[in-house]
């Protein structure tokens, strides 16, 4: 009995696999295409052959030039047939073949005949084909017919002409613009799609004429646009007009807002959504404007259609970034979406909730997310991990539950990218939230006990070596590290040996025991592991005596490498190519940092975060700057570097010379580091200096300048100019800069420069040293505690009127950036409709003085903003200085 | 005439654009596809996109309602029936409901044209109708028509039996057959 059943299944499988194109072969089909040349055409057979040809093309097969030409000529013969179906396939085939200009001429007359045919389908399709394959010269010949077609009674013909017009406008704008009158007539068409296509074309014709677009929108928003698609277009154009016209200042009303709001009651969902989205994207949208849009989006959240739910949650997710409070009404609907079948929707819902959540809802939310995480793909999990990381930075007091969550998911299954995202997040939390450090490090230790990714294990070991010795009880990490030496592959073992050595060097009490462990590593079967162990034992004094390791040795073993690796590589390559008796001298390697090559600079990538930029990105950038400055004898006496600013661009993008500047602040000095790049291959610049005019910076006196001997193409270099300034005072001022140099022509083929150069100069933008340059952004995890423990001894309170402002947010941001301090506990975000706001800031002022600031803002109906500033610090003069910054800002 | 990714902001201010329409089988192989964007310049780029979108969506249930996903920098809406997977892709800022209306138009028009017998075998046997159908839905990325009856009507009036175009009534009948077929297959 079983046998026939199986047989039957087999039959079914055969049937399922059956395809009319089975075994199809290009050569054979091209042979078959000869039927196109038969004197007696068989339309059915010809259609079948065309379908086969189209099937081949659709499957990715390509025809050679000769094959394509042959097929094309054969197909043109088929215009003789009167068969409507065949003609339709001919049209398709010609479009697919995209014939060359001289081939187009062959079919032009046939297609023009069809354009004037009495059959609507012929007219519509011939227009689409002809416009697709034609060039400008032919267009003038058929223009008359196209204009007629635009106002054709048949909507299909009109649409064909209008859509073709939209495409042709890209290549032949001057011709298409002449059709304005006809297009305008078509906008009034009763046929929905004609109206849509006509509106699209009319707008494109007029898009560079703001006034015309504004008139178009004004008249259409009053009238009735029938087609939902056309209505969506009109909403987009309206948003554009609103963007360009700005708020009507007399009444405070936004022009056309009523129209957008009316569209929220349209019967087509696509229109409602388009309008809701347009409202959420209005610049400076108020909560009153936002509310109706949020309400319809909220209704969509519980729709039975996944696309509607997705559209709504995606939009609300975006709104939550700027107006978190406006979205909180949707939280209940949002929470039920966590279990949505569509995981894209669920993930968007989760991340929205994470953005709108307040401190008290964190724990509940984490519980829900835990269940959710087990059944989504890694790519979604990464999004959630990133959202949790920013939540944790926003509410540092909640680090315990968020850190626990991260460590739990770290233990579960997951791919490399997901695990890396979690580890990166833990590293960032350890770095930014001091209280989270010890528990975070232990979580990472537990993770490497069972980690399948060598990269992550070595990175964590390295991080552990930097951070672990500084903790209260470094000994508890040793077990985890030594386990790596016993259990892992050679790469991880070598990393673990280095980490052990760091603990040994930094923590004297652990040293004897570490040496015992390192001695065991001398018997490892891997060269690198043995070599490292030997090196560390010899340099750290592994003879068993407990001596404090000398600073020089520590610096040699663990200090950051002060030579840029790319420079090191180049120097070593040169050394190998040109061997000499002398040994390689590391001091011969240039220390000047070669900033990113041009190509990368144009496309600014994501900032490396977490382990991607170990050991700690901000600190190491500062370290690198400090090293660089100390290596310049003129600056060696300036003392400790307090702060280096982010680079400020002094040239427009894509100019001949690209220059940015980094401001290095010392107690009594300011060093300006100009990073210069020459972007002209035909030029070599020599003796490059920056002439700085400090006449608008009275308190600054130039004391040293370090020019750049030569600046070849695409090889960045630095120029330094140092100023003296009064100590401890946040001196401010404006500097104007001119780049002066000798330019020499370079022959790009040989790369050789001419002997003689010409002196030239290049104006750079001005640069300002501002009060914020003297402030380090340093956050505190618990502002209230920090505030109270600082005490009110030197507290200073002052009230300020900030004048009329666009919004409270704008005022808050202005004060934050003026002071250059770190906002704490997410207080930089102003609730949408609130009329008052309190913002907490923390920082370290020059002289290493901790500063805490409490700002209270209020805004009245005239948008006048008042601010109360309370500052506490360990130094009264700093409190005074903070008020001076605000008073003079 | 097809716009490239560079002028995305312009796209948003102009027409809603469809980047591609795909009809794949239950193993992710092509039945018929139409690309209206330079985002995928080679056939291998197209195949890679199809493979990726198929893998991402194959386990979802898109049989009663159209589903949607974010994918690379695209929004894709999709619907499955029997061994056929229908997709419409647009840019990440596109109004997904507009894409969904194009998908529904395509899906229902194919149902009408295949008289309710919507599966891979039938689709391949009537590939000319499917290709014409794609041609009637978009032109260079711009939506031509989303009403399934109109799309199917335009395709059918061109079919080989030109003497007997589908009348409105027969289209209605075909739709009824399609619905009946769908219900029956759901009840199985």
TrEMBL record, chain A:
InterPro entries (alphabetical): ARM-like, ARM-type_fold, Clathrin/coatomer_adapt-like_N, Clathrin_app_Ig-like_sf, Coatomer/calthrin_app_sub_C, Coatomer_g_Cpla, Coatomer_gsu, Coatomer_gsu_app_Ig-like_dom
KW Membrane (keyword) present: yes
Subcellular location: Cytoplasm; Golgi apparatus membrane; Cytoplasmic vesicle, COPI-coated vesicle membrane
Domain Clathrin/coatomer adaptor adaptin-like N-terminal: 27-540
Predominant subcellular localization, coarse grouping: cytoplasm
Gene3D superfamilies found in the cross-reference section: Coatomer, gamma subunit, appendage domain, Leucine-rich Repeat Variant, TATA-Binding Protein
Basic and acidic residues composition-biased segments: 593-603
A GO cellular component annotation in the UniProt record: Golgi membrane
Keyword rRNA-binding: no
SUPFAM superfamilies reported for this sequence: ARM repeat, Clathrin adaptor appendage domain, Subdomain of clathrin and coatomer appendage domain
Domain Coatomer subunit gamma C-terminal positions: 772-886
Domain Coatomer gamma subunit appendage Ig-like subdomain, residue spans: 624-769
Membrane topology, as annotated: Peripheral membrane protein
GO biological process: endoplasmic reticulum to Golgi vesicle-mediated transport; intra-Golgi vesicle-mediated transport; intracellular protein transport; protein secretion
Region feature (Disordered): 593-618
MF annotations from Gene Ontology: structural molecule activity
Function recorded in the entry: The coatomer is a cytosolic protein complex that binds to dilysine motifs and reversibly associates with Golgi non-clathrin-coated vesicles, which further mediate biosynthetic protein transport from the ER, via the Golgi up to the trans Golgi network. Coatomer complex is required for budding from Golgi membranes, and is essential for the retrograde Golgi-to-ER transport of dilysine-tagged proteins.
Protein family membership: Belongs to the COPG family.
Quaternary context: Oligomeric complex that consists of at least the alpha, beta, beta', gamma, delta, epsilon and zeta subunits.
Protein name: Coatomer subunit gamma
Organism listed in the record: Coffea canephora (Robusta coffee)
UniProtKB/TrEMBL annotation, chain B:
Segments traversing the membrane: none
Domain of life from the UniProt record: Eukaryota
CDD domains, alphabetized: Zeta-COP
Topological category with respect to the lipid bilayer: Peripheral membrane protein
Keywords assigned by UniProt, alphabetized: Cytoplasm, Cytoplasmic vesicle, ER-Golgi transport, Golgi apparatus, Membrane, Protein transport, Transport
AP complex mu/sigma subunit domain span: 18-156
Gene Ontology terms describing biological process: intra-Golgi vesicle-mediated transport; intracellular protein transport; retrograde vesicle-mediated transport, Golgi to endoplasmic reticulum
GO cellular component: COPI vesicle coat; Golgi membrane
Subcellular location: Cytoplasm; Golgi apparatus membrane; Cytoplasmic vesicle, COPI-coated vesicle membrane
Quaternary structure annotation from Swiss-Prot or TrEMBL: Oligomeric complex that consists of at least the alpha, beta, beta', gamma, delta, epsilon and zeta subunits.
Similarity annotation: Belongs to the adaptor complexes small subunit family.
Function: The coatomer is a cytosolic protein complex that binds to dilysine motifs and reversibly associates with Golgi non-clathrin-coated vesicles, which further mediate biosynthetic protein transport from the ER, via the Golgi up to the trans Golgi network. Coatomer complex is required for budding from Golgi membranes, and is essential for the retrograde Golgi-to-ER transport of dilysine-tagged proteins. The zeta subunit may be involved in regulating the coat assembly and, hence, the rate of biosynthetic protein transport due to its association-dissociation properties with the coatomer complex.
PANTHER family with a match to the protein in the record: COATOMER SUBUNIT ZETA (PTHR11043:SF0), ZETA-COAT PROTEIN (PTHR11043)
Protein name: Coatomer subunit zeta
Organism per entry: Coffea canephora (Robusta coffee)
């Amino acid at each position: 009995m079983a046998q026939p059943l199986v047989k039957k299944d087999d039959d079914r499988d055969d049937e399922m696999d059956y395809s009319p194109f089975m075994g199809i072969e290009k050569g054979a089909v091209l042979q078959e295409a000869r039927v196109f040349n038969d004197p007696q055409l068989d339309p059915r057979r010809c259609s079948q052959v065309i379908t086969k040809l189209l099937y081949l093309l659709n499957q990715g097969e390509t025809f050679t030039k000769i094959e394509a030409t042959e097929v094309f000529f054969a197909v043109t013969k088929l215009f003789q047939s009167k068969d409507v179906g065949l003609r339709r396939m001919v049209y398709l085939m010609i479009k697919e073949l995209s014939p060359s200009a001289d081939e187009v001429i062959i079919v032009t007359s046939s297609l023009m005949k069809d354009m004037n045919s009495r059959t609507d389908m012929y007219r519509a399709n011939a227009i689409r084909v002809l416009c697709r394959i034609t060039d400008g010269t032919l267009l003038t010949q058929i223009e008359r017919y196209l204009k007629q077609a635009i106002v054709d009674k048949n909507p299909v013909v009109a649409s064909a002409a209008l859509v073709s017009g939209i495409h042709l406008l890209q290549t032949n704008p001057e011709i298409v613009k002449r059709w304005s009158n006809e297009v305008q007539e078509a906008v009034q068409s009763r046929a929905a799609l004609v109206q849509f296509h006509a509106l699209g074309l009319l707008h494109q014709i007029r898009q560079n004429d703001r006034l015309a677009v504004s008139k178009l929108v004004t008249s259409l928003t009053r009238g009735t646009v029938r087609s939902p698609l056309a209505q969506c277009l009109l909403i987009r154009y309206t948003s554009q007009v609103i963007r360009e016209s700005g708020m009507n200042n007399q009444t405070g009303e936004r022009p056309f807002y009523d129209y957008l709001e009316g569209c929220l009651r349209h019967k087509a969902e696509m229109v409602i959504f388009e309008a809701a989205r347009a409202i959420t994207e209005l610049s400076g949208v108020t909560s009153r404007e936002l509310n109706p849009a949020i309400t319809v989006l909220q209704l969509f959240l519980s729709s039975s259609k996944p696309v509607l739910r997705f559209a709504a949650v995606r939009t609300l997710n975006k709104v939550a970034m700027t107006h978190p409070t406006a979205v909180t009404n949707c939280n209940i609907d949002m929470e039920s979406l966590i279990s949505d079948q569509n995981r894209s929707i669920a993930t968007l819902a989760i991340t929205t909730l994470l953005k709108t959540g307040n401190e008290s809802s964190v724990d509940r939310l984490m519980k829900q997310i835990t269940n959710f995480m087990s059944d989504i793909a890694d790519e979604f999990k990464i999004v959630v991990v990133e959202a949790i990381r920013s939540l944790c930075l926003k509410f540092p007091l909640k680090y315990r539950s968020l850190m626990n969550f991260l460590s739990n998911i770290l233990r579960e299954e997951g791919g490399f990218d997901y695990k890396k995202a979690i580890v990166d997040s833990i590293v960032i939390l350890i770095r930014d939230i001091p209280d989270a450090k010890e528990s975070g490090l232990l979580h990472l230790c537990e993770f490497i006990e069972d980690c399948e990714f060598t990269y992550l294990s070595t990175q964590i070991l390295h991080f552990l070596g930097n951070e672990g010795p500084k903790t209260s009880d470094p000994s508890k990490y040793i077990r985890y590290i030594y386990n790596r030496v016993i259990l892992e592959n050679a790469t991880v073992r070598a990393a673990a040996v280095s980490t052990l050595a760091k603990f040994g060097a930094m923590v004297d009490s652990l040293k004897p025991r570490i040496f015992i462990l390192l001695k065991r590593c001398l018997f490892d079967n891997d060269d690198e592991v043995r070599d490292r162990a030997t090196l560390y034992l010899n340099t750290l004094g592994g003879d068993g005596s407990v001596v404090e390791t000398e600073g020089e040795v520590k610096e040699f073993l663990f200090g950051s490498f002060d030579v840029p690796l790319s420079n090191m590589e180049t120097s070593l390559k040169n050394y190998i190519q040109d061997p000499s008796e002398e040994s390689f001298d590391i001091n011969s390697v240039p220390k000047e940092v070669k900033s990113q090559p041009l190509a990368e600079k144009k496309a600014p990538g994501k900032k490396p975060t977490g382990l991607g930029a170990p050991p700690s990105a901000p600190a190491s950038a500062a370290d690198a700057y400090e090293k660089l400055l100390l290596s310049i004898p003129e600056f060696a006496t300036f003392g400790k570097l307090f702060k280096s600013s982010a680079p400020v661009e002094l040239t427009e993008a894509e100019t001949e010379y690209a220059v940015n500047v980094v401001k290095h602040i010392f107690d009594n000095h300011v060093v300006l580091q100009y990073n210069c790049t020459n972007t002209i291959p035909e030029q070599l610049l020599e003796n490059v200096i920056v002439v700085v005019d400090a006449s608008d910076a009275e308190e600054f006196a130039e004391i040293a300048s370090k020019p750049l001997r030569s600046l070849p193409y695409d090889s960045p270099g630095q120029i330094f100019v140092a100023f003296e300034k009064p100590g401890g005072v946040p001196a401010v001022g404006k500097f104007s800069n001119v780049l002066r140099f000798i330019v020499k022509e370079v022959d790009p083929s040989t790369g050789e420069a001419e002997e003689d150069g010409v002196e030239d100069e290049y104006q750079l933008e001005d640069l300002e040293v501002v009060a914020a340059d003297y402030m380090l952004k340093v956050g505190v995890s618990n502002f209230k505690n920090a505030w109270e423990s600082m005490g009110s001894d030197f507290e200073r309170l002052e009230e300020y009127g900030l004048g009329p402002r666009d919004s409270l947010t704008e005022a808050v941001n202005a004060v934050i950036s003026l002071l250059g301090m770190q906002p704490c506990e997410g207080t930089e975000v102003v609730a949408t409709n609130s009329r008052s706001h309190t913002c907490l800031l923390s920082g370290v002022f020059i002289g290493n003085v901790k500063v805490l600031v409490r700002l209270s803002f209020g805004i009245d109906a005239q948008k006048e903003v008042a601010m109360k500033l309370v500052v506490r610090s360990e130094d009264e003069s700093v409190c005074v200085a903070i008020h001076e910054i605000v008073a003079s800002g | 005439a097809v716009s490239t990714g560079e002028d995305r902001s312009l796209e948003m201010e102009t027409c809603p654009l469809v980047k591609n329409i795909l009809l794949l089988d239950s193993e992710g192989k092509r039945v018929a596809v139409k690309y209206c964007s330079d985002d995928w310049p080679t056939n291998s780029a197209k195949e890679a996109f199809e493979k990726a979108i198929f893998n991402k969506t194959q386990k979802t249930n898109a049989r009663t309602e159209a589903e949607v996903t974010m994918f690379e920098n695209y929004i894709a809406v999709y619907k499955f029936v029997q061994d056929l997977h229908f997709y419409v892709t647009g840019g990440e800022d596109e109004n997904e409901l507009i894409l969904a209306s194009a998908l529904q138009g395509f899906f229902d028009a194919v149902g009408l044209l295949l008289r309710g017998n919507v599966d891979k075998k039938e689709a391949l046997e009537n590939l000319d109708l499917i290709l014409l159908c794609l041609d009637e839905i978009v032109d260079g990325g711009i939506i031509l028509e989303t009403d399934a009856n109109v799309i199917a009507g335009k395709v059918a009036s061109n079919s080989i039996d030109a003497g007997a175009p589908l009348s409105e009534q027969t289209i209605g009948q075909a739709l009824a057959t399609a619905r009946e077929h769908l219900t029956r297959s759901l009840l199985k």
